[in-house]
Amino acid sequence: MKKIIVLIFCLIITSCSITRIERQVVNNFIDEELLKTKYLPYINTKNVLVNEAGNGLGALLFYEQQLKNVNQLNYNSNNWVIDSVEIVKLKKLYKNKKLYNWKNSDFSNHSFEILDAETNLNNYKTGYYLNFGERLILTLSKPLFVNKKTALVWFSATNKFGGAVEKCVILLENANDKWIIKSRYYNGDN
Fold first, then answer.
1. pLDDT tens digits for 77-92?
2. Which of 28, 98, 110, 176 is the most exposed place for a label (fewest CB within 10 A)?
3. 190 lies in a domain?
4. Residue of 42, 39, 26, 37 lying closest to 113 (CA atoms)
């Protein structure tokens, strides 16, 4: 009986947490992304992170839609590393994964003001963000692993007026134990 209780406790703890490799992916990505020139005005600000990280499936669904658009337009889709057969397999694998909410402890080099999506939306509607200097409002999904060396994340960055600075799915690859941005997939409204 004691072993069963310990096992259940361990399952609860692990289902509500982020793995070491997921943490490495998001930290490597955020570290690389926020160094880009377009983010310089926000370098010394307390940026906002929407806490809903999902389970990674949203990134895959966005990727799938963009792949369909590319195929319909007969563009060269060679840089699209996940095909429709693999997408179906990944959907089955991820559909029952637990949803996750970010915590500041998930990020090693950054501290965010973490808000739920509803509060974030209300802050835009009421003009609350306009009371502050420059700041980014970030949305980042939990990574979806295609394989041991490839992951997808959904990422958006908006300014305090709601204007998009970036909005896309990011393909990351593991190179020498560091996750680097390999490709970006946009929906055309950026």
1. 567 889 889 999 999 9
2. 176
3. no
4. 42
- The whole model's pTM is what? 0.82
150-170, pLDDT tens digit by residue? 999 999 999 888 888 899 999
Q: What is the pLDDT of residue 66?
A: 87
6 part of a folded domain: no
CA atoms within 13 A on the CB side of 97: 21
Check if the beta carbon of residue 181 is closer than 8 Å to that of residue 172: yes
Any domain includes 4: no
Tell me the angle at which helices 57-72 and 84-94 cross, rounded to the nearest 10 degrees: 160
Cα 100 from Cα 156, distance rounded (Å) = 17
Strand pairing report for 178-185 and 150-158: unpaired
**CA–CA dist 98, 137 (Å, integer):** 24
Q: Which domain holds residue 136?
A: 19-185
Which three-class secondary structure string do you get for the chain?
CHHHHHHHHHHHHHHCCCCHHHHHHHHHHHHHHCCCHHHHHHCCCCCEEECEEECCHHHHHHHHHHHHHHHHCCCCCCCCCCCHHHHHHHHHHHCCCCCEECCHHHCCCCCCEEECHHHHHHHHHHCHHHHCCCCCEEEECCCEEEECCEEEEEEEEECCCCCEEEEEEEEEEEECCEEEEEEEECCCCC
**Domains in the chain, number:** 1
